[in-house]
Amino acid sequence: QQQVKQSPQSLIVQKGGIPIINCAYENTAFDYFPWYQQFPGKGPALLIAIRPDVSEKKEGRFTISFNKSAKQFSLHIMDSQPGDSATYFCAASQYSGGSNYKLTFGKGTLLTVNP
Amino acid sequence: DTGVSQDPRHKITKRGQNVTFRCDPISEHNRLYWYRQTLGQGPEFLTYFQNEAQLEKSRLLSDRFSAERPKGSFSTLEIQRTEQGDSAMYLCASSSPGQTFPGELFFGEGSRLTVL
What is the dihedral of CA A83, A8, A41, B80, to 10 degrees? Predict the structure, then answer.
């Protein structure tokens, strides 16, 4: 059961383009939606996160758009650069008891930004 | 370096052998997680510790898998009688109550296991 569906699987853009990665979820218990960036040979690193009561969050060139009614959220990368080439994972955080929150990840999007 | 440290980074073993991975979390983090990542997939939750207590285990963690965090600092993940299906990247992550958002994780670089 895939709780967080991510698309596309891969994406190629030219430098300066605006790649958009989309995610959808079903579980309304999710209460925080982060995006992680992973370079080859490295672990995922937090990029940006949004709460469900906010429709948009921007940090530098990265923007999350959130549509609570549609249970969808997306990542936009403005003025993309070759250094942004990486795998991007959307995720959803859910309280799982005690003081634990569990992250469920999408399958990832391999982004290539050509010079 | 004050990030999450994992060892070894790569392990190649023959089917049926036992392997053990070690994770040293960020020093002030009391929560430690193990995730598994296979090619083309996102990380999948395996287990979670708060201090030395193992509070949650995924159904993915079969009886051949065991994780410990004896003193609430470093953790080990042991896989007994490895199978080819165990080939994956094993990621360790840690977090603290002072994180940016609930469930924010800091990941290590992973331990890649190849079972021949």
Answer: 170
